[in-house]
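User: Is it possible to get a 3D structure for a protein together with its bound compound? The compound here is adenosine-5'-diphosphate. I've pasted both below.
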Amino acid sequence: MKIAILSQDASLYSTKRLLDAGEKQGHEMRAINYLRCYMNITSHKPTIMYQGKPLEDFDAVIPRIGASRTFYGTAVVRQFEVMGVFSTNDSQAISRSRDKLRCLQILARKGIGLPVTGFAHATEDIDGLIETVGGAPLVIKLLEGTQGIGVVLAETQQAAKSVIEAFRGLDANILVQEYIKEAGGADLRCFVVGDKVVAAMKRQGAPGEFRSNLHRGGKAEKVKLTPEERSTAVRSAKAMGLRVAGVDLLRSNHGPVVMEVNSSPGLEGIEKATGVDVAGKTIEFVAKSAAEAKNRAPLDRVQY
Ligand code: ADP
Ligand code: MG
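Assistant: Yes, that's possible. Here is the predicted structure of the complex:
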């Protein structure tokens, strides 16, 4: 098969691993910087141009769209879809997953366990918002944050009030969330491919740190999931319409709760912590799914 990895940088670990794994399995692989693609969206024969030539005859694309490039990245993925090319994750599902709030609303509707969460833009009733999630201690998050930046633990009602007021002064969108203390500064990253968790790691925050992000000094190790955790991860990816996803869970007293679902999960942390060939498993899945998709009518395949 001819498979493209849509990535801003072919030298990134995840991109390199997918290229290698694809070649090993006998596919023709190519890294394409989606920011450099341009396209004719109206012609009878929709095209994508890259380095002066049309991108033709691809069987599948694997999008790895940067968080700050969602708009243009999903436009390129959508154009491949219009051309009848299979994409591991549909453009629509990628856009959906990029909005933390929308993500939680979709998961809640499917009955998936979540930390009790409240949302506010600029509320006058701060006490009411704090009460929504059961009072302090609680976690306050900037909706736009990644890598743990903009995630604050407020231990007391007074601290919570001050932080909410400060964010309000900045005109920021914030989430207020029940603090899952019993998670002990750790979370679980479950790498979902199709209807399976192919690898899982536990990330433990640095001593005294409640955020487990590796960018904040967290350490990762292989972990064995319970059947409930596995099924929560798989159902979450499915609810978001993602075939490949990184689902982040916390171990709470009331079972696994989902924090985030990522549509371009990184391979480096998870492959190094678990020793699993996640790239190889992803390519196997893509090749099989692309072949199956060929047998269906193009318009049945994706929604815009
Ligand atoms: P980001 O998108 O910046 O990574 P997260 O929502 O994933 O933000 O939060 C960062 C980290 O903070 C999580 O990985 C987790 O360890 C910790 N954390 C977030 N929310 C909670 C919570 N409600 N209870 C306990 N720990 C939390
Ligand atoms: Mg996170």
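Residues 17 and 295 are 29 Å apart (CA to CA). The chain has three domains: 2-96, 117-179, 182-284.
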